């Protein structure tokens, strides 16, 4: 029988550019690493989820370790840390203490809310003792922390902030925001008191600014 019509051909998917494929593999890896950790995720699983062969992964990343490191570079570039620091500097220059503290807590909350998968990935990395957690701390957390610590020390010298160790002040400031964000978004607590994020942040700032005790106790050093 003569064929007077061309046989239909399967439509092939358009080929991704190298940059697009690399980005896709990173996003897929973030999803799987956030669920199962580094040790619990194989390149075979990443390839299957991305719809490619393992050879494609190794074409872009020599090892799974290199893929893990690429995730941090990708997220650091995405987060525009320079803009983040510039915004903080404006508040520091104005000596707007409460505005600066609100800014820091809001950034911590928005990170866990908007980058939940990456936040969970970092939690896995810390629990596994993986160097990605150390890299994240060295590249992002430490420079930000040092900038805030120096500001706190300067404001303490001016008498605007109580004179305990600047690092402890920063620990209290960052700790309340981090704990709230982790409990609500990373650990998915189903019920959380205080209303929406803005209400909670308002409450945390009020506590930081005013303290908890209406009548502070006298110095208890030396008490048995």
Describe the structure concisely.
The protein has 224 residues and is mostly helical. It contains ten helices and no strands.
The helix/strand series, from N terminus to C terminus, equals HHHHHHHHHH
> Which structural class do the helices and strands define?
mainly alpha
* Count of distinct strands: 0
Tally of DSSP helical segments: 10
Largest beta-sheet characterization? none
Q: Helicity range of the residues?
A: 55-70%
- What overall form do the CA principal axes indicate? elongated
> What is the C-alpha radius of gyration, as a whole number of Å?
24 Å
Write up what this structure looks like.
The protein has 224 residues and is mainly alpha-helical. The protein folds into 2 domains: 18-75, Homeodomain-like (Arc Repressor Mutant, subunit A); 80-210. It contains 10 helices and no strands. The protein has helices spanning 18-36, 43-50, 54-60, 64-79, 81-93, 97-114, 116-128, 131-157, 166-186, 197-210. α1 (18-36) packs across α7. The longest helix has 27 residues, at 131-157. The protein is elongated and about 65 Å long. The model is unreliable at 1-13 (pLDDT under 50).
């Amino acid at each position: 029988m003569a064929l007077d019509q061309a046989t239909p051909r399967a439509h092939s998917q358009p080929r991704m550019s190298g940059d697009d494929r690399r980005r896709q593999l990173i996003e897929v890896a973030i999803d799987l690493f956030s669920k199962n950790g580094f040790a619990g995720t194989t390149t075979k699983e990443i390839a299957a989820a991305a719809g490619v062969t393992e050879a494609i992964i190794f074409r872009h990343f020599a090892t799974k370790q290199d893929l893990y490191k690429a995730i941090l570079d990708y997220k650091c570039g995405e987060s525009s840390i320079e803009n983040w620091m510039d915004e903080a500097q404006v508040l520091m220059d104005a000596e707007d203490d409460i505005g600066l503290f609100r800014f820091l807590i809001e950034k911590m909350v928005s990170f866990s809310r908007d980058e939940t998968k990456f936040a969970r990935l970092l939690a896995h990395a810390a629990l596994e003792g993986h160097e990605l957690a150390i890299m994240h701390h060295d590249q992002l957390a430490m420079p930000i922390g040092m900038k805030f610590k120096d500001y706190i020390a300067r404001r303490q010298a001016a008498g605007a902030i109580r004179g305990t160790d600047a690092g402890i002040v920063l620990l209290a400031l960052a700790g309340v925001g981090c704990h709230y964000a982790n409990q609500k978004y990373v650990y998915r607590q189903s019920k959380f008191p205080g209303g929406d994020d803005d209400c909670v942040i308002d409450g945390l700032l009020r506590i930081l600014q005013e303290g908890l005790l209406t009548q502070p106790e006298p110095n208890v050093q030396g008490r048995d």
